[in-house]
Amino acid sequence: MLQEESDLSLTIAQIVQKLKGSSLYAQLERQAWASLQRPEIKLESLKEDIKRFLKTSGWEKKLQNAVYSELSVFPLPSHPAAPPEHLKEPLVYMRKAQGSWEKRILKSLNSMCTELSIPLARKRPVGEQKELLNKWNEMGTDEPDLSLFRPVYAPKDFLEVLINLRNPNYENGDSLSFRTHLGLIQVPLKVKDIPELKELFVELGLTTGQLGIDDSTQVPPELFENEHVRIGQKVLAEQDSAAAQQYIRQGSPTALRAELWALILNISNQPEDILYYEQLKTNVIQHDLLVDSLIYKDVKLTASNDDYYFVFEDYLYQVLLCFSRDTSVLGHFAYNSASPPRSYIRGKLGIEEYAVFYPPNGVIPFHGFSMYVAPLCFLYHEPSKLYQTFREMYVRFFFRLHSISSHPSGIVSLCLLFETLLQTYLPQLFYHLREIGAQPLRISFKWMVRAFSGYLATDQLLLLWDRILGYNSLEILAVLAAAVFAFRAVNLMEVTSLAAAEAVLADLSTLKVMPLLQIFLFATVT
Amino acid sequence: MATPFLNSLAQLKTRDYIGPTQNQNYKGYGLSKGKEREGEWDFYWCDVSWLRENFDHTYMDEHVRISHFRNHYELTRKNYMVKNLKRFRKQLEREAGKLEAAKCDFFPKTFEMPCEYHLFVEEFRKNPGITWIMKPVARSQGKGIFLFRRLKDIMDWRKGTAGKKLTSLEAQQARSVVNPSGSHDVRSSDDQKEEIPVENYVAQRYIENPYLIGGRKFDLRVYVLVMSYIPLRAWLYRDGFARFSNTRFTLSSIDDQYVHLTNVAVQKTSPDYHPKKGCKWMLQRFRQYLASKHGPEAVETLFSNMDNIFIKSLQSVQKVIISDKHCFELYGYDILIDQDLKPWLLEVNASPSLIASSREDYELKTCLLEDALHVVDMEARLTGREKRVGGFDLMWNDGPVSREEGAPDLSEMGNFVTNTHLGCINDRKKQLRQLFRSLQGQKKASS
């Protein structure tokens, strides 16, 4: 009992500490001062009256949302004496692996830099600044020569690193038994099985209404859809983050989605936020970074070639270029196993005072990175709101998809979850694919790293991301990947090569996500 | 006439989806090639030029079908369409009042050049600073179009070669008596002038606040199948697409000198189109996008305003078009949406391009053709009471058609929901299967 209480007070203290530095605190203070003018505030019962006022004017709700947001993002402290590295990643061998992977990336970036003799960063001459400012809304029309740039790494390079991950404390033994894991990932992390997933994703069950299933044309809207929309509007009127997160587990109506996501991610579009975005824009105009070219290249290679996202090319530049200069993103490295790369001012290599994070936000984009932003362009049109949403999504979810950690939503766990589900519930398929040299993870890895963006039809993707927000977890990506294999199992059993397996699974654009998930979790005999 | 033939006709017409081909032989897909002149065909998807030369002296049996109306240009040539619409609008105002007539205000103010030049100048002076667009009446694919803001720009243009022809015609018009109803007969004006073929132009108010997606301008291509004008029977296809321009929209591209238009003409589909991988969105995607931004009600309103455009435009030429029971026509409507979500009619095409630019496009156009042929019903399988055939929904049947199943078609609006599903799910295969199965059943029962 005592332990729990002290844990709780520690958590409260930490959250208070965090919120004290935020603009919400300043606003609450201002509101409290302003409320002194009001007639109902009496000197004798000052504290109670102000509290009541904050409650009725909706400020308490905002505070609640902010607290809820912190709880969702920040991991709870395990032990007061735990060093900060443990918050990032408790397992030593994972930390080491992430460290050496980062060294490799940085080496690759530096060598590209030296080869092309382009500085990592430079200040733009005034003429160039003016030109960029004029072209800000149509940077996609630029056709700079990007042929010499290569993406720093692609998902498949990262997969190789994960395949070679080993826990030095774990002895597998050479003999094969039924317990042997047949997949590529060979680390002993705990992953959920279907009964546990059914408990986690209980709202996706057969008896609960879902958007993505129960809003199809054959189902009369009175049965589920109308009521669901009504509840959604109520949730938005109440401005309650926690309620929104619970609500969205059954999917979000198209018209309400943008606001619901903003509520769940606790994004306000205050003047300060718009100003912040403008500042970032100014940074982009004034300085040119090497990563800018990497971003350009990535957008041109991926989003611009996509049948549907090509329209949003310009927005992608506006978001990603600003993102790479946003130092507030550095905050997420406290709970990310990765660490931001460091660079040194020219000539001062190794001297700590001259170390800077490069890029300023510490995130080096890889091939396909821009696809995290593209689906959001469907929902948000003001650049600052689009930017904020992307940033929040990144520091809550997407960063886990390309850093090595033992977190249940980390990419390693997702891969293991996928392989385990397949091996346990579709053993014949798994064995067959393994025999022909088509390890399933080799095909599904790219889907999971990109959170299926660019592979599913946009409306289906948004329904999937609704659930990621609703359950505050990325495990659903692994479940969907397994469900896709289960769906195409008959065809896959007949293929005889990796290339043929890839062909069977090349086009996911016709898939309906929610029925697949439901069938896999709730309608398959286990 | 066997169905497999018609299906293969649909295949033939859209077979090349990887880039354009020059040998698209649209002529004579009758039972045997080359026999078209001898009239030994039952079905002809013809060229407009063939039509103009041969229709008048071709005898057609009762069952024969041809894919154009004799004087379709009343709808598809911009200057005629404007005249017809203006006249229809006046009639509506007389009969049903200003409110009803205002429903015809979906066409930007247009003046025919050169005969309405003075009216145009008056309008121009009333609205200084707005942008106008000059379009040749009978050309397509954006050729010859340009934008201008000053009268001086037209003066310069008139001094060019196009202008020379125009000034000569202007002189003629001043001398001759202008027929009050406006002579639409192309040949008579041909007779009047001398050897130089005159090109007619229209000056139209340019829509300066188009709806932009991703900073880009786009227009919508929608397909309407008209089976007859008297009575008016029109079908609307559920699929279509939005064509995006490659460049970002900006009004500053209009210089002070008269410039040739780049940012509107580019997105017209043409065989010379820049082969960027599909600058098109299917209408379902477009509808979803709008719904997520503006909500489903606003989208409903927009789409029912578009229905209004189709119906009113067809009604305006209903009395003028020679309604021949052998004729049907598949029109391609070009619609532009402005920032207030108001749809504007840009033009109507009698021969919409059936060349596909991508796999998706190919699917759309083959299915479109197949369903059009089902509606034409050479095999006489349909009862004539169907409200949906594949991807086509019956939009107008001498009166509005209700979405309600089985209910008699009401003429008052009230709780009326029209039977159109533009941009909605197109489960045409399933519908066709059910339809033909039930028709077969009915046939067996009655035999």
Task: Describe this protein with a few key phrases.
heterodimer, A: 526 residues, mainly alpha, two-stranded antiparallel sheet, two-stranded antiparallel ribbon, 2% strand, B: alpha+beta, 5-stranded antiparallel β-sheet, 18% strand
Please explain how this structure is put together:
The complex is a heterodimer of chains A (526) and B (447). With 526 residues, chain A is an all-alpha fold. Chain A has helices spanning 2-20, 23-35, 46-56, 59-73, 84-88, 92-116, 126-134, 155-163, 194-200, 225-238, 241-247, 257-264, 271-286, 290-301, 313-323, 383-396, 411-425, 427-435, 440-449, 458-471, 475-487, 489-494, 498-504, 513-522; strands at residues 121-123, 287-289, 342-344, 355-357. Chain A is globular and about 80 Å long. By secondary structure, chain B is of the alpha+beta class. Chain B is built from 13 helices and 15 strands. Chain B has helices at residues 3-13, 48-54, 73-76, 78-96, 98-102, 117-126, 151-159, 161-175, 186-192, 283-294, 296-316, 359-376, 428-446, and strands at 43-44, 65-66, 110-113, 132-136, 146-148, 201-205, 212-213, 216-228, 233-248, 259-260, 280-282, 329-337, 343-349, 388-389, 392-397. The chains are: A mainly alpha (526), B alpha+beta (447). The interface between A and B is medium-sized, with 24 and 25 residues.
Task: Summarize this structure briefly.
The complex is a heterodimer of chains A (526) and B (447). By secondary structure, chain A is mainly α.
Unreliable parts of chain A: none
Total number of helical segments of chain B?
13
Largest sheet of chain B: 8 strands, antiparallel
In terms of quaternary structure, what is this? heterodimer
Order of helices and strands of chain B: HEHEHHHEHEEHHHEEEEEEHHEEHEEH
Distance between the termini of chain A: 39 Å
| Beta-strand percent range of chain B | 15-25%
Proportion in helices of chain B = 25-40%
Indicate the radius of gyration of chain A in whole angstroms: 25 Å
String of helices and strands of chain A: HHHHHHEHHHHHHHEHHEEHHHHHHHHH
What is the makeup of the main sheet of chain A?
Answer: 2 strands, antiparallel
Largest contact between chains: A-B, 24 and 25 residues
Task: Estimate the mean pLDDT confidence of chain B.
Answer: 74
Total strand count of chain A, please?
4
What order do the strands of the largest sheet of chain A run in, or round the barrel if closed?
1-2
How would you describe the shape of chain A? globular
Number of helices of chain A: 24
Structure class of chain B:
alpha+beta
Q: Structural class, judged by helices and strands of chain A?
A: mainly alpha
